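Lecture 7 notes: from sequence to structure.

We start with a single chain of 141 residues. Read the sequence below before looking at the structure.
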Amino acid sequence: MKKIVIIVLAVAIVICASVIGFLTFGNSQKGSVEIVEDKSYLSDFEVQDGETKIDCVLTFKNTSDKDITFSVKAHFTDDYESGLVSDEYVIGICEDTGEEHITIKAGETIEYKGVAFCSKNNGSEIKSDRLLPDLTIEEIE
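Now the structure, written as tokens:
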């Protein structure tokens, strides 16, 4: 009798673990859009007419099996604190299209030579570094 109870409990545990595993991993997306860091960089910045424009060259890689539309958000912590920009988070605009949304085909790697992040200047015209800002990819459903 004890053997039957132990076997039933073991089977129940295996079934529960399988269901939890499927719910956790079964619905996850295969791949996503990534920034290719070694091929991406801040190319220039300028302050003109009260606006700061930070230009970047960004290379994206779609590791999924579907086309993805997304936007890129930059986090300018130091530049916000120094007054170079008035917005800590800024959505990039693709200068080729004038749009903030970019679509990349499944498996494709593509370089955008002009992604501009623009924000009202908040009193400073000095950029403390030429590093790429922290970037976040936001997929559009």
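The longest helix spans residues 2-26. Keep this in mind for problem set 3.
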